[in-house]
Amino acid sequence: MSIHEQLWALQDTNYRAFTKKLIPNEPDIIGVRIPALRQLAKELINDDPLAFLAQVENRYFEETQLEGFVIGTMKMPADERIAYMEAFIPKIRNWSVCDGFCSVLKDAKKNQALYWALVEKYAASDKAYDQRFAAVMMLNYFINDNYLTKSLALLDQLKHDDYYVRMGVAWAVSMFFIRKPIETMPYLHNNTLDDWTYNKALSKITESLRISKETKDRIRAMKRKKQLEKNVQSD
After folding, report:
1. CA distances (Å), 102 to each of 148, 182, 195, 207, in order?
2. pTM above 0.85, yes or no
């Protein structure tokens, strides 16, 4: 069977309806659950992943997501993977493909300098999902003593009006605080995040089960009132 036939054979119509609500701007959704896509990616990798990558058409949402899983999990030197990544990233057009792709790039843990250069490159882009990619890569792989300061500085430079970029930055900032609260607190007091992104980051921190009640109370008190007042006036 062709890749398209294999994807349609895995269709779950209920999951398709669910996915269309989560990603409303994605027109071509078949409805394949993530575990099934990951399993198909494994089968392609065991067969001939490079042949798949050479022929992929990106006609469907799941086809693009599958391509990302193959690129991220096939066995190859990290420097060779970078070339496939750079060809793939411009194809990202929704948060699900972006975040799923980032989640499988496990060799970023062992090749920090190589991947950091890529993060810096896409953080400097003016494209929404390039910036989202950079933010999600940072929260997945760079919350450590070597890159914390540089990551927070780079997150502070991501200035895009797109909702998913701002949410990505807020999510990343919250994760840096949750995992490195003492080191991240100075950044919460001194940053150039817009009010919405800043307050969203604080909200996500307070949602964490890893944060004490006392710390949550302190974080809530740090919310910017100007943004809160605007929200009240617009209701």
Report:
1. 18, 26, 27, 23
2. yes
